[in-house]
Write a structure and sequence with these properties.
single chain; alpha/beta; Alpha-Beta Plaits; Rossmann fold; 23% helix; 23% strand; globular; disordered N terminus
Length: 460
């Protein structure tokens, strides 16, 4: 039977993922820390490396591709290393605390395609995936495009690598969280949920991702145990993904409330943001599309000059707002494209809208969709793959812009699969031209250029 769902979980689902900045003051007294070092050139020279070691630093990662190095050192290293010629900046890294509500889960009980809820598909929980109906994934599959030949890197909290819907498409991964591997058997299910929405295999088991034949690189940049992560991990994860064959990078993460543009710590943050920009630019130069969630603060990003949505407002990132129905289990013909109650918005930032889910339906009556009977409002959230402690192939609901970005990444994977060697700018153009204009004509605050449409995207 399904795990019971409480009203407490209902409240959490609507703000399922965010990141809060911690440690700006506390970290300054730490005895050892990571520093992000940027050069003016492509990498550290041998002399610069020697000077860093002489200043008490240990280089733990050198990324000459983007002119960045990660250095472990004690207090005062930034001042000492700042005198080394040729360095642009030496900045103590900042830890991000990931505030996430875990999905509510359901265990598994033991070729034309149609969209949910009446698909007749043999993947038992597919009919719960209204998000695939919203983007018309079945239309792309019927045209013969399922993501084969494309690789998606999910920068997140890792994945449950043995999940029956994840394992068939997993080809590798890496962890940039000390002491943790990219494969989880406990802790956060967020990365598993995101990966499943993108590329859960069509294997007559549970769910089906938008691009069920795309391949997965699971890149851990957030701890599955503590929910924390830092800029260094995200930067390294992006470079690793590019160098290991990703076509699409999905970053379903964001800073709750945004990063401050001014005030205490803002100068240091600006250098860390600049280092991350270099990683995004590196992806673009290598024809890798970067997709990110817009954030769950309900903020108007056009008129909030005091904070920055991160990484959503980085140049070169496709930023995705969350859309959601209200009462879909009661009436599957209900509009799937209203802006979710929690989603950030703003014409200058949002590129696309996509299914992110919501829990705003007010009733508590029961509904049945496919094999599942539950309170009706839960079906308006996004259903995908998760794991439970100890490892098991579970499925569950979650809602957030974190759930929206994977639908865009999945459609992008379909396009990369159809067009081997295509440029990232061309993929972006196809996504824009094929999107359904669900808001006011043209680009709008809620859904940008529109809600992505998989069936139309593969027609280009």
């Amino acid at each position: 039977m399904l795990r019971s769902i409480s009203m407490k979980n209902r409240n959490l689902l609507a703000t399922s993922v965010g990141v809060a900045l911690i440690g700006l003051g506390a970290m300054a007294t730490a005895q050892a820390a990571n520093y992000v070092v940027m050069t003016h050139g492509n990498g550290l020279s041998s002399t610069q490396q020697e000077r860093i070691r002489a200043a008490g630093g240990t280089i733990t990662a050198h990324l000459p591709q983007i002119g960045v190095a990660i250095v472990e050192a004690g207090d005062g290293f930034d001042a000492a290393a700042g005198a080394i010629p040729g360095l642009q900046s030496v900045t103590r890294d900042v830890t991000l605390d990931w505030d996430i509500a875990e999905p509510d889960s359901a265990p598994i009980a033991a070729e034309d395609f149609a969209n949910p809820p009446g698909s007749g598909d043999d993947d038992r929980f597919y009919d719960l995936q209204w998000g695939n109906a919203a983007v018309d994934a079945a239309g792309a599959w019927n045209a013969g495009y399922r993501g084969a030949g494309a690789t998606v890197a999910v920068l997140d909290s890792g994945a449950y690598c043995a999940h029956l819907d994840i394992a068939p498409n997993l080809i590798g991964g890496a962890s940039f969280v000390p002491g943790e591997t990219f494969c989880n058997t406990s802790g956060s299910s967020h990365g598993t949920h995101v990966a499943g929405s993108i590329l859960a295999a069509d294997n007559a088991t549970g769910t089906i991702g938008v691009a069920p034949e795309a391949k997965l690189l699971a890149v851990k940049v957030l701890s599955a145990a503590t929910g924390s992560g830092d800029f260094a991990g995200i930067i390294q994860g992006m470079v690793w993904a590019v160098d290991n064959g990703a076509n699409v990078i999905n970053m379903s993460l964001g800073v709750r409330g945004g990063l401050p543009r001014s005030g205490p710590g803002a100068n240091e943050l600006s250098e860390l943001i600049n280092a991350t920009k270099r990683a995004v630019q590196y992806a673009g130069k290598n024809e890798v599309l970067v997709v990110a969630s817009a954030g769950n603060d309900g903020r108007d990003l056009d008129h909030d000059a005091s904070t920055m949505s991160f990484p959503g407002q980085l140049p070169g990132v496709l930023t995705v707002s969350a859309l959601a129905p209200e009462g879909w289990a009661i009436d599957p013909t209900v509009d799937l494209d209203p802006l979710a109650s929690y989603s950030n918005y703003g014409q200058s930032t949002i590129h696309f809208g996509a299914p992110g889910g919501d829990t705003r339906y007010p009733g508590n009556e029961l509904c049945t969709v496919g094999p599942v009977t539950q309170v009706c409002w839960i079906f308006d959230a996004v259903f995908s793959t998760v794991q439970v402690s100890g490892g098991s192939s579970f499925y569950g609901w979650n809602a957030g812009t974190s759930m929206a970005a994977p639908h865009v990444a999945g459609v992008a994977a379909l396009v990369y699969g159809k067009h081997p060697g295509i440029k990232a700018s061309q993929v972006e153009s196809i996504l824009k031209r094929s999107a359904d204009d669900v808001g006011k004509p043209g680009r709008d605050d809620a859904s940008g250029f529109g809600r992505v449409n998989a069936a139309r995207a593969v027609q280009y």
